[in-house]
Design a protein that fits this description.
The protein is of the alpha/beta class and 417 residues long. The chain is built from 15 helices and 13 strands.
Length: 417
């Protein structure tokens, strides 16, 4: 559902990706604070100072979301859940799990630590300005806020905002953390992840449609207590509801995919008969003999019978044709550390997780250490769309090593349908 965005940093080996939509959130928060709230608290501040503090508050809130998601990722790693990236986007953030939590307990702890982190951040921010806050609550005077400096003002806004973020995430509606807490509780009670996911997801969709309804009412002029009544607020609320509904529906699709694929193996989907390359195979030879007779999007590179790299059609397209005669496979291949390989006997869900975690359209499949085929993302997606009905594929020729002398090569494998 989410794009990967662009990577801006790595923390504990986890890629931190920013979606372009996050810039919209930063802009909206900066303007809302710098033009709306802060001039009310500090009428004596210049417009530049108010906007500067508003921008700092928006960035600080984004960092708070990052800490929230990092807590999920680090606890997930304790339970060996592969989490290699976090994406921050207009509606918040997401730790991108490649697999579901292995147990109800692991999901409960992983989900619960996020709101706890936001609560701690909020409490620390409020504690740092407790004197001023206590005075304001006692006197009820807006002049108390006017006496606060930029840093204290920022913290006084950031504290309650994180507390609200924690409470909102505890709502038992999937995919919010509260929805995951609900799912883990039902999972533990029933032992059925599929039923727990369905309950949490349908609860999430109901909550999402309630939010969409409130947003629509605000667009029509209704004033909702604690939410407001402006058309802009109603539109934003509707967008949040749409996002939550989409995410809950996606969780149902993922669970359906997991259930279908868990009863299969990689061998079920593997396309046998692979054109493999030797490290010294020239791109010109690859083009003349193989590119037009096979639809392979990737070509494994073998050395001593082992897969040591992968040449992709995408890399070929990026290289000027005039250089193909003088360029060999090892010059343009992805190194072994840059892609995964799957065993023919592995679970189908493992294959889906690996393919979703890469931009490659196919990955090599091994059996007893020997390259025996490729598994394509499109084949797994088609299997799920058809409700578990697979296509019958004719067995192709054995793996062809394009680096062997011509006299010893088989005919090219038949192009897969």
């Amino acid at each position: 559902m989410l794009g990967n965005g662009f990577c801006v940093a790595r923390v504990f080996g986890i890629r931190i990706n920013l979606d372009w939509g996050l810039l919209v959130l930063l802009g909206l928060l900066t303007v809302n604070l710098g033009v709306g709230l802060l001039p009310v608290w500090h009428p004596e501040w210049s417009r530049a100072l108010a906007l500067g503090v508003g921008l700092a508050a928006a960035v600080s809130f984004t960092l708070s979301i990052l800490l929230h998601e990092l807590s999920h990722a680090l606890v997930g790693r304790l339970f060996a859940i592969p989490i290699h990236s976090i994406t921050l986007f207009i509606f918040g953030g997401a730790a991108n799990m490649e697999e579901e939590p292995p147990t109800a307990r692991s999901e409960f702890l992983m989900a619960g630590v996020g709101p706890l982190t936001s609560l701690v951040i909020g409490a620390l921010c409020l504690a740092a300005t407790w004197g001023a806050l206590s005075d304001a609550m006692t006197t009820g005077s807006s002049a108390t806020f006017a006496r606060l400096g930029p840093a204290a003002t920022l913290l006084l806004w950031l504290g309650p905002t994180n507390l609200v973020l924690a409470v909102f995430n505890l709502i038992p509606a999937f995919p919010l953390d509260g929805g995951r807490l609900l799912r883990s509780t039902v999972w533990a009670a029933t032992g059925r992840l599929d039923r727990a996911t369905a309950l949490a997801a349908y609860t999430g969709r109901g909550f999402a449609w309630a939010i969409i309804g409130l947003g629509a009412a605000m667009l029509l002029g209704a004033h909702i207590p604690y939410l407001g009544g402006s058309a802009g607020q109603g539109l934003w609320l509707g967008l949040v509801g749409w996002f939550l509904d989409h995410a809950a529906a996606e969780s149902l699709r993922r669970e359906r995919s997991r259930r279908l694929l868990s009863a299969t193996t990689v061998a079920t989907f593997m396309r046998p008969g692979v054109v493999a390359l030797a490290p010294e195979t020239s791109l010109e030879e690859l083009s003349e003999r193989w590119l037009t007779v096979t639809d392979q999007p990737v070509f494994p590179v073998l050395f001593g019978g082992l897969v040591v790299g992968l040449v992709t059609r995408e890399r070929l397209r990026r290289l000027p044709r005039a250089r193909w005669a003088d360029t060999v496979a090892r010059d343009v291949m992805l190194l072994r550390s840059e892609f995964e390989m799957l065993a023919a006997a592995e679970d189908g869900t493992r294959a889906l997780a690996s393919l979703q975690g890469t931009e490659l359209p196919a990955l090599p499949v091994l059996e007893a250490g020997e390259l025996v085929g490729l598994i394509y993302h499109v084949d797994l997606a088609r299997y799920v769309r058809r409700g578990g009905k697979s296509e019958r594929r004719p067995r192709a020729a054995r793996t062809v090593n394009a680096g062997e002398p011509l006299a010893h090569r088989d005919e090219p494998p038949a192009t897969s349908p």
